[in-house]
Amino acid sequence: MKKLVTFSLFLHSFLCVFASNFLLIGTRENSLGMSSISYQSITTQNPAFYAFQENKAIYLYSQYHFSGIPVLNLTLAYPLKQEKVIQFSCSSFSTDFYKDQQFSLGYGQKIGEKLILGISLQNQLIQIPSYYSHHVWKLSIGSTYLLTDKINVSFMTKISLLNDVYQTENEQRNLSENQLNIGFSYHQQKWQFVSEIQQIVTQSMILKAGINYFLNENFSCQIGCNSQQRWGVGTEISLNSYKIGTTINYQNLIGFVPHLSLQYDF
In principle, which of 141, 143, 200, 226 could form an S-S bond with 179, CB 3.0–4.6 Å? Predict the structure, then answer.
């Protein structure tokens, strides 16, 4: 009985870390306390910011967990015309006892001088063989409003279109994972501050904050934390068409997690 209770607690913690919070985000987002809707990035969770991608780009990303098997992510951005961009992402994490595959397709467009809007569709399949299967489709709608040339406010809502859980006893139930994110960004020539609030229906509110400091036009460093006892530090180097990002996260349940990314703009 004690072993069963211990296993149940471990499984619950494991699913809270991976199933609920595993996102297609990059090194910069992880180093800024998991902030992911407040600034321009090819891996942003706010599809409005896709509109800022001026060139065709490919982004490769990997992070390592305690299993020693990496989470791999591929992201592509393709501008249709000026300030109209589509983005595609896919990722995979697979071991003998846990599998997580997901992909997303999004579109962002600038409306006038101040407003940017975007939309994306995400599919995720989580499996623990012979025990648990979780299949979800999510629709994300994002916006960013440029208050001034230094300040912007962002909103993003994510709605579960299909969210089914299957367990070994053939039980099926729908779980609500609808969420709302609000973000704020203030940037100067040398540094940028971001803060965000994330509210998922079935969870406590998460507060996030981070600072991105630019030593020069080719090198920046980041630090951030959030109320889930996660913090991170990272760097990003720009070399011509390449961007190389590194981050180390600390998560209270699984310890230190390293991240590495490479982006190439065509």
Answer: 200
